[in-house]
Specification:
The complex is a heterodimer of chains A (447) and B (222). Chain A is α+β, with helices and mostly antiparallel strands and 447 residues long. Chain A has 9 helices and 14 strands. Chain B has 2 domains: 122 residues, Response regulator (Rossmann fold, 3-Layer(aba) Sandwich); 95 residues, Arc Repressor Mutant, subunit A (Orthogonal Bundle), CATH 1.10.10. In chain B, the strands form 3 sheets. A 5-stranded parallel beta sheet of chain B has the order 2-1-3-4-5, with helices on both faces. In chain B, strands 6-7-8-9 form a 4-stranded antiparallel beta sheet. The chains are: A alpha+beta (447), B alpha/beta (222).
C-alpha cells in the first residue's frame, strides 16, 4: 500500500505539471504570433524603422475573450514606435533581444501580473527593434485551475479504483489462508493428519512446513504414549511379585501383630498397581488408532465386570448390585470396561463401608447409558466439574483413590463421542455417575 | 495336584510357586516355553500356568504347540498385557482362563482350583469344593464322608453350581438346571430352594453368595 500512497500523489503532481506546461507554451505561442504579426508591420525601407497600425489591426491584435493584451514596439535605440508606452515600466524589464530571438517571462506592471513575450526584430544595420506583447493571466489562471481540478478528480478516482482492486486482490489472495486457519483451529494432538486445504502454489511451502511440524508432533505424542504404556507395563511384573510376596507372608505362620502392617502394605501395592493400570488406560484412551466402533452391548460389559468384582474382597458391608437391561452401543470393549471399573472403584473408595452400589445400564431416546450409583456422601454440585480433572480429589474425599478414576472415565466417554455426567442419586444422598453414548449408527451394508 | 508353572521373572516364579505349594500342590517351574510340550507329555500335570511374555517362543506359541500335540491339560494364562485382543487370542488359542498382572494370590489359587475342577468334571464323576464333594453318577453329595439329604431339585441345582463353582450363575440359568421345575417357575421358588441348599452345604466350608441383580456364586470360604 505504501508505494501507492506515495506514488499516486507524485504521479498526479507530475501529470499536472506536464499538462500545465504544454498549455502554457501553447498560450505563449499565441502571444508570440501576435509579436510576429507586429514584426511583419515594421517598415525599414526608409532606413529608420517605422510601423503603422490601423485601428482595425489594433483591435484584431488586442482581441481576446478573457484577457487584456498590451503591446509595444521599440526602436533599437529604445524609442517608442507604436503601442502602449506604459509597458516600458515593466518589472523586471528584460534585456534587449537579438534579432529573431524571443524571451518569455512573468512580469509585473503596476502590481498586475502579466505574461510577456519580447521578440527581437532586425531593423537594418544589424540592430534589432524590440517587440513586447503582454497579456493578463485570467485565461492562464482559469486553465491552471481547470487542469488542477481534472488531475485531482481523476487521481482520486484512480486511487479509489486501485484501493478497491487492492482490497479485492488481497481478499482473494488471503481466502486460502482463512481456510487454512480454520483448519488449524480444529487441530490438536489427536488430529495431526496432513493438512488438505487446497492452496495456491505460493502457499504450498507453508502447508508443507505445517505438515512436517504435525509429523514431528505426532511422533513426539506417539513416543510419549508409548513411554507411558511401556512404563505401566514394566511396573506390573515387579508389583505383581511384590503383591504375591506380601500375600504369601500373610498366608504363612507369622506374628499376628504384623497383620495390620501386612494389610497396609498389600493395600499400598494394590493401589500402585491400580495407578499403573490407570496410566496405561489413559495412554490407551488417547490412542486414536483404537477402534471405538465395535458393536457391543453395555450389558455384557457390566456382566463381565460383575463376574470380576464378585471375586474381589470388598470393604465391609459394601453391597454391589446390578440392574442390567439390553444396551446396544458402539465402542471399544476394553476401554468401556476400564471406564466402568473406574466408576465402581470410585464408588467403593468414596462411599465407605455399608455402601450400597448399583450398576445399571439400558437405553433411552438419546442412546445407550451405563451408570453407577452409590449412597455415599456424593460430590457437591460446585465440585463436580473439577472432580473429572486429573489428580483432583473431592474436598470430603477420605478414600484411597488416585484422583484419576473419574478423569479417565470422562476421557473414555469423550473418546466415544459420549458424555460422563455426575448426578444426584435417585433418592437420598449419593452420587450417580452416568455414561451416555450416542445412538448407534446404522450398520454398514454387508460386503 | 501337580502344576507346571512357566514364567521367566525369577522373583515372580518363586513367590507364585510358594503360594501354590502352600495349598499342598506340587509345582514344577520353567522359564522357557520350548520344553513345555515334552514335559507335559512325560509327566501327568493337572494344570499349566503359562506367562505370555517369555524369552524365546512366547506363551501364545507355546500354547499353540501344546494344543497341536493334542495335550488337553487345562491352561491358565498370565500376562501383563490386557488388551481384549490378547485375551481373545489366548482363549481362541486353547487357554481355559486368563489372569492379568498384577493379580491377588487368592484369585490365582481360586482360578487354578476352578480350572482343575472343571477339567475333572469332564473326566470324572467326582467334584470337590473345600469339604463338599459330589458324586454325579450316584447323585449324592457329601461333607467329608457324611452324606447330605437333598431333594431332587436341590441336587440338580447343586450339581449345576458345582460344575460352575467360582462363577456367578444367573438366576435364569438356575431355573433351567432342574427338570423338576416347570417352565414358568417363580423367582421365589428358586430363592427358597437356594436358601435351603445354602443351609445344607455351608458347613462344608463353602458359601453360596448372592450377587444382587447378577446371580449366585458358589465358592470356597477363603
Amino acid at each position: 500500500m505504501l508505494p501507492l500512497l506515495v506514488g499516486l500523489p507524485l504521479l498526479g503532481v507530475g501529470l499536472y505539471q506536464q499538462v500545465q506546461s504544454s498549455a502554457q507554451s501553447w498560450l505563449d505561442e499565441g502571444l508570440e504570433d501576435t509579436a510576429l504579426t507586429l514584426a511583419g508591420q515594421i517598415d525599414t525601407r526608409s532606413g529608420e524603422p517605422r510601423i503603422e497600425i490601423s485601428a482595425t489591426m489594433d483591435r484584431a491584435l488586442r482581441f481576446d475573450r478573457q484577457d487584456d493584451v498590451f503591446y509595444l514596439v521599440l526602436s533599437p535605440s529604445g524609442q517608442v514606435l507604436q503601442g502602449d508606452a506604459g509597458l516600458a515600466d515593466l518589472q523586471p524589464r528584460p534585456d534587449a533581444r537579438p534579432a529573431g530571438r524571443s524571451w518569455y517571462g512573468d512580469v509585473k506592471l503596476r502590481d498586475r501580473d502579466l505574461r510577456l513575450v519580447q521578440l527581437g526584430h532586425d531593423c537594418g544595420g544589424g540592430s534589432a527593434c524590440q517587440i513586447l506583447v503582454a497579456e493578463t493571466l485570467h485565461k492562464r489562471d482559469a486553465l491552471q485551475r481547470q487542469i488542477g481540478t481534472l488531475v485531482a478528480l481523476n487521481g482520486a478516482g484512480l486511487a479509489l479504483l486501485l484501493a478497491l482492486a487492492g482490497w479485492w486482490a488481497i481478499r482473494q489472495g488471503l481466502s486460502p489462508l482463512t481456510g487454512l486457519s480454520a483448519e488449524l483451529e480444529h487441530r490438536d494432538l489427536h488430529r495431526l493428519t496432513p493438512l488438505e486445504a487446497r492452496l495456491p502454489r505460493e502457499l504450498v511451502p507453508l502447508q508443507l512446513a505445517f505438515n512436517r511440524l504435525f509429523e514431528r508432533l505426532a511422533r513426539a505424542a506417539g513416543a510419549q504414549r508409548e513411554f507411558l504404556a511401556d512404563a505401566a507395563h514394566q511396573l506390573r511384573t515387579p508389583l505383581t511379585s511384590l503383591q504375591t510376596e506380601i500375600e504369601l507372608a500373610m498366608l504363612e505362620p507369622h506374628d499376628q501383630r504384623m497383620d495390620p502392617l501386612l494389610q497396609r502394605l498389600r493395600h499400598r501395592v494394590v493401589r500402585s498397581a491400580r495407578l499403573a493400570q490407570q496410566l496405561l488406560s489413559l495412554a490407551r484412551a488417547e490412542d486414536r488408532s483404537v477402534d471405538v466402533q465395535q458393536r457391543l452391548d453395555l450389558r455384557d460389559i457390566a456382566t463381565e465386570s460383575g463376574q470380576d468384582w464378585a471375586h474381589r474382597t470388598l470393604p465391609s458391608d459394601v453391597d454391589l448390585g446390578f440392574e442390567l437391561a439390553e444396551a446396544p452401543a458402539q465402542g471399544h470393549a476394553f476401554l468401556l470396561r476400564e471406564l466402568l471399573e473406574n466408576l465402581i472403584h470410585n464408588a467403593v473408595s468414596y462411599a465407605g463401608s455399608g455402601a450400597r452400589i448399583t450398576v445399571r445400564c439400558g437405553t433411552d431416546a438419546d442412546g445407550s447409558w451405563l451408570e453407577v450409583e452409590d449412597n455415599g456422601p456424593g460430590i457437591p454440585l460446585a465440585e463436580r466439574a473439577t472432580a473429572m480433572q486429573r489428580f483432583r480429589r473431592g474436598s470430603s474425599a477420605t478414600g484411597s483413590g488416585s484422583g484419576l478414576g473419574l478423569a479417565i472415565a470422562a476421557d473414555i466417554a469423550a473418546r466415544h463421542g459420549g458424555r460422563l455426567d455426575l448426578l444426584d442419586a435417585h433418592a437420598g444422598p449419593g452420587l450417580r455417575a452416568r455414561l451416555s453414548l450416542p445412538p448407534q449408527q446404522p450398520a454398514p451394508p454387508a460386503a | 495336584m501337580r502344576i507346571l508353572l512357566v514364567e521367566d521373572d525369577d522373583h515372580l516364579v518363586e513367590t507364585t510357586a510358594r503360594a501354590l505349594r502352600s495349598q499342598g500342590w506340587v509345582v514344577d517351574c520353567t522359564a522357557r516355553g520350548e520344553p513345555v510340550p515334552r514335559s507335559l507329555r512325560e509327566d501327568a500335570y493337572d494344570l499349566l500356568i503359562l506367562d505370555i511374555g517369555l524369552a524365546g517362543i512366547d506363551g501364545f506359541e507355546t500354547l499353540r504347540r501344546v494344543r497341536a500335540e493334542g495335550i488337553a491339560v487345562p491352561v491358565l494364562i498370565l500376562t501383563a498385557r490386557d488388551a481384549v485382543e490378547d485375551r481373545v487370542r489366548g482363549l481362541e488359542g486353547g487357554a481355559d482362563d486368563y489372569l492379568v498382572k498384577p493379580f491377588a494370590l487368592t484369585e490365582l489359587v481360586a482360578r487354578a482350583r476352578a480350572l482343575v475342577r472343571r477339567s475333572q468334571a469332564r473326566t470324572s464323576n467326582q467334584l470337590q469344593l473345600a469339604r463338599l464333594r459330589i458324586d454325579q453318577e450316584a447323585r449324592r453329595a457329601y461333607i467329608e464322608d457324611e452324606p447330605l439329604a437333598l431333594s431332587a431339585r436341590e441336587w440338580d441345582v447343586l450339581g449345576f453350581l458345582m460344575a460352575r463353582a467360582g462363577k456367578v450363575v444367573p438366576k435364569e440359568h438356575i431355573a433351567l438346571a432342574s427338570n423338576a421345575w416347570d417352565q414358568g417357575v417363580s423367582d421365589n421358588a428358586i430363592e427358597v430352594c437356594l436358601s435351603r441348599l445354602r443351609a445344607k452345604i455351608e458347613p462344608g466350608g463353602v458359601q453360596l453368595r448372592t450377587v444382587r441383580g447378577l446371580g449366585y456364586l458358589l465358592e470356597e470360604i477363603a
